[in-house]
Amino acid sequence: MHELFLAGEVDVTELEPTTVRPVVAKSWQRSLAKGVDPDFDRARPAAVASGIAKLRDSHPLAPALPVIRRLLVDDAVDAGVVVAVTSADGTLLWVEGDPKARRKAEQMNFVPGADWSERSAGTNAPGTALALDRELQIRGSEHFSRVVQPWSCTATPLHDPDTGALLGAIDLTGGPQAASSQTLALVRATALAVESHLALLRLTGCAPEPATRKPHLVVLGSDRPRWVTTDVYGHLRATMLTGRHADILVLLSRHPEGLSADHLAVLLDDKDLDVVTVRAEMSRLRKVIGAEYLASRPYRLLVPITTDIGEVFDALDLGDVEAALNAYHGPLLPQSVSPSIARLRMQVSASMRGAVLAECSRGDMAPLRRWLEMPEGRDDREGWEALRNSASIDPVGRAQAGGHLAGLDFELG
């Protein structure tokens, strides 16, 4: 199936889950879309490869390395497996274990400093586990790149115990036994031990400060938009925003290169807004969220931020419709009259609806049911019709869908 997929002769998302697991099929599609070469000889070196020692010393997982060695590495030395610890971006920090297995792994550049993110190396346990932020096992031929297919692996993400920020992942790579249920339990238990160890060190003042979350912008749904930051104690602080300030922050988050006052004025209102008003709003916004976050000439964000709309787009890019629905709490800034915000509002809504209907066409009705429960889905005639006509729906559900359709048709004449 892997060869047929690469040849463009089969759509793996339409296969039975027993043929290719859905999580693997979606990862293959992402790998192909990102331009990963299935015949790559070695994973690309990360930009930090030359400074790997410095990165290790400063990484928040460094204090937990003794725990990982005690629970995993010590027993891996003569077991034909290697244990890897990655940073959050997929860079391998430590690769230890069976010497013979390590030498074999080096032939595909599974070494400290190499980039094993999914976007670089294709489907693999540590890279895909980081992309999805979930524990994962990849077996042999499920790997996207052929050079990795002799291996199997199990990985689980690691998080900051205070803030929940993603720190990296633990991976165990070897033969078929490296993707067994017992291995998953062992790696999962090690991850829990690592996070508990970091929490204990922090309580005793022996660990680095918590990894702070990026500022987060909440702009989806009917609730008032807000700017969420983390203080030095790891506590979340939400600052409510006016509609205009939320518009500005959304536009700046979508234009990291920055915007001039003239350009921002046109994006906010293509008719009546002048540059003086924009400058006044930016001055007020600095006082609301802090001057350390905003720069001028051009106006731009000084630090990376996350947004709930960005989370939706990221989940859709990964093919994870369930995660996208979890992040999508309603239309983008529904009260905004900015033409650029209106366009983006339509884009995210249409993308969500299209992804839900695509899942429906593959036989998964759960996303459609969730969509139809949302305000935007209640009048979605095509969606209700698809639910009514689904072969997997029970008679009562079909009757309810039919009743909803009748009500829509009556209202629409």
From TrEMBL:
InterPro entries cross-referenced by the UniProt entry: GAF (IPR003018), GAF-like_dom_sf (IPR029016)
Domain (GAF): residue spans on this chain: 84-196
Protein name in the entry: GAF sensor protein
Gene source species: Mycolicibacterium cosmeticum
